[in-house]
Amino acid sequence: MLVFRLIGESFRFAWDALRQNKLRTSLSLLGITIGIFIIIAVFTAVDTMRNQIQSSVDKLGSNTLFVQKWPWLFGDNYPWWKYVNRPEPSYRDYLSLKERMGSAQGVCFEVSSGNRTIKYRSSSVEGATINAATQEYDKTWNLEFENGRYFTESEGQSGTPVCILGAEIAEGLFGTDDPIGKQIKVMGRRVTVVGVFKKEGEDMLGMSQDKNVLIPMALAKGIFDINSERYNPQITVRGKENISFEEVESELQGQMRAIRRVKPGQEDDFSLNKTTMLSNQLDTMFSAINIGGWIIGGFSILVGGFGIANIMFVSVRERTNIIGIQKSLGAKSYFILLQFIFEAVVLCLMGGLCGLFLVYLGVLAVSNFTDFKAALYLSNIVLGIGVSVGIGIISGFWPAYSASRLDPVEAIRS
């Protein structure tokens, strides 16, 4: 009870001192407000972008591997000359992998052609992406349907002219009408709509089925060269749930080396891309941004901390005789120490809360007036409050310590 009483009295003394000097208090907390605002604003923006990009990456699947020509690497030292002469994944590679992969839930061959125009009678949609895939596409991707169904085995094997539309394509061609069973023109061929994907919305990486049209690979063979580099061929492999990702990756690498007849000790002529590669790149990038936020906001907080320390020395000077009276009436040195430390903490905490409030207003403005959905996370709120309290303790300690060491007689005479 004594401890709580001591803390309560210390806060009351601190609050009275701040309330009696409103202008000085406002100017002192301005630096802390700006510093906390910058740091938390940067962290909020980074965390929001990171979570949205990570959710896009998660769509690829944590147990999914992509056999491609180019690796998912970024940076100035990208050794493109090592990869430019590699062969693209081929349909023959897919057939061999499908027979050999025992740990795979599904093995799918995919190609795509972007910026196409889809027509239905007098309506048309531009900028669509035509995806062609083998029958295992639904085993390697998580598909949700708004209407209709996936391809049947016979449709996929025989190359029946059927397709599945993205939500935006269906809306642009048919409006509110039911598209199932209607024929549209895709790359000069008439195909029947058998399904519509559920609307996903655009994500940070631009991965969405909304503007895609999916057709069977057997149908695509009669329209374009599915092994051509211009159509970005890739093999998607999703491992079984009861088998570790490392085991699936090891088997896939071994099987691809055997299929491509890569000699022992020779470097792979293909890339096995996975979501962890993107996640690691994102972590590196956002860590650099966080450091920048700490540096920029840290200078402002440093200036604010010096300002608060200076104000606290002034406050000690003004109240020297009061300190002497308190000590002569029996106040302990630690009470005087806590009194001024709490005053500095309250000052910094007010500045930190003002900075957090400004960030919250910014988040509301961005979310309401743009398509970017920002969020102020609890971890950032705790961080802002923690930094404010820490700066208050550091800035107020030396003035508080000097006040606690005053001689009561000399203090009363000052």
TrEMBL record:
- Whether Transmembrane helix counts among this entry's keywords is yes
Keywords annotated in UniProt = Cell membrane, Membrane, Transmembrane, Transmembrane helix
Q: What are the TM regions of this chain, as residue ranges? A: 27-46, 291-313, 334-363, 375-398
Name the Pfam families for this protein. Answer: FtsX, MacB_PCD
Domain (MacB-like periplasmic core) spans 25-253
Domain ABC3 transporter permease C-terminal as annotated: residue spans: 295-408
- What highest taxon heads this organism's lineage? Bacteria
Q: How does it sit in the membrane?
A: Multi-pass membrane protein
Q: Which InterPro entries match?
A: ABC3_permease_C, MacB_PCD, Macrolide_Exporter_MacB
Which locations, inside or outside the cell, does it occupy?
A: Cell membrane
Family recorded in the similarity comment: Belongs to the ABC-4 integral membrane protein family.
Q: What is this protein called?
A: ABC transporter permease
Instruction: Please report the organism this UniProt entry assigns to the protein.
Output: Pedobacter helvus
